[in-house]
Amino acid sequence: MAKLRFGYFIAPVHAPGQNPTAALERDLQFVEHLDMLGYDEVWFGEHHSAGSEIIASPEIMIAAAAQRAPRIHFGTGVTSLSYHNPLWAADRIMLLDHLTRGRTIFGVGPGSLPTDSAMIGLDPTETRELLQENLDIVVRLLRGETVSAKTRTHELFDAKLQLSPFSADGIGITVAAVASPTGARLAGRYGLGLLSIGATLSADGFNALAHHWDIVEERADANSATVDRRNWSLCSPFHIAETEEEARRQVAYGIEPGSRQSHER
Fold first, then answer.
1. 10 Å Cβ neighbour count for 134?
2. b/e for 66-85, b at 16 or more Cβ within 10 A?
3. Residues 6 or more apart from 49 whose CB is under 8 A from it?
4. What is the pLDDT of residues 95-118, one digit of tens each?
5. For residue 54, what are the contacts with CB-CB under 8 A and spacing of at least 6?
6. Which 3-state string (H, E, C) describes the chain?
7. Which residues contact 193 (CB under 8 A, 6 or more apart)?
8. Which of 93, 107, 202, 250 has the most beta carbons within 10 angstroms of its beta carbon?
9. pLDDT tens digits for range 48-72
10. Alpha carbons 100 and 71: distance in angstroms, whole number
11. Burial of 170 by CB count in 10 Å (0-12 exposed, 13-18 middle, 19+ buried)?
């Protein structure tokens, strides 16, 4: 039986009013602590608006954190692939794979904040379709193919990467899913991992878990791809203390504003 792995997902929510430089430094120090405790993975999110989720580039955070934490693996949680030129996204993650000595997981998704996509002229209803188009290109590039393709936002001509992955088994790619089946379909089609974000945050997210994995396996079979349940990551909020009473006391500060912000999004 495979060992259960443990990781930490940095959304990246920081309470408004904090010194942002200090908040980012605290994130990096926390990663050092997770590495020391023996955690397997840490994930950084990407957002560009709203004022509280202040990590604009998970790749840059990973590059900084990897210099402090020599053992733990790092995931982009996630790169909003719909916002990016797929060639440059693949190129950056390949470089990061070498900088981390093969400890990079490329998590991708469509982007979640309408205020992010609005600033680059994207309708939020278009981001899932763009994710599908860009992911197809990225998968091919990371597998060493030369790609010519046109999406509604970019066009590539004989595009290819300069580097091969650090490890012989390549770079792990994971697709985000909450309640929509889009992520599960893409993970199955290409034989990728699945990142169930907010697996216990809502009834819809929790109830979708089994259905999503069924979709992953069905799409994998239909496309002659191979998927592995060990590449399925589930995100759930938690706080550990000596007793439940003490845990509730410790999280009393800040939990209401944080929950309110999540619901408002």
1. 26
2. beebeebbbbbbbbbbbbbb
3. 113, 115, 116, 119
4. 999 999 999 999 999 998 999 999
5. 12, 14, 20, 23, 24, 47
6. CCCCCCEEEECCECCCCCCHHHHHHHHHHHHHHHHHHCCCEEEECCCCCCCCECCCCHHHHHHHHHCCCCCCEEEECCEEHHHCCHHHHHHHHHHHHHHCCCCEEEEEECCCCHHHHHCCCCCHHHHHHHHHHHHHHHHHHHCCCCEEEECCCCEEEEECCCCCCCCCCCCEEEEEECCCCHHHHHHHHHCCEEEECCCCCCHHHHHHHHHHHHHHHHHHHHCCCCCCHHHEEECCCCCCCCCHHHHHHHHHHHHHHHHHHHHHC
7. 105, 172, 173, 174, 175, 187, 228, 231, 232, 233
8. 107
9. 998 889 999 999 999 999 999 999 9
10. 9
11. middle
Give the count of beta carbons closer than 10 Å to the beta carbon of residue 173.
22
Domains of the chain: 7-264 (3.20.20.30)
Tell me the whole-structure pTM to 2 decimals.
0.93
Token pair for 194: 């699945």
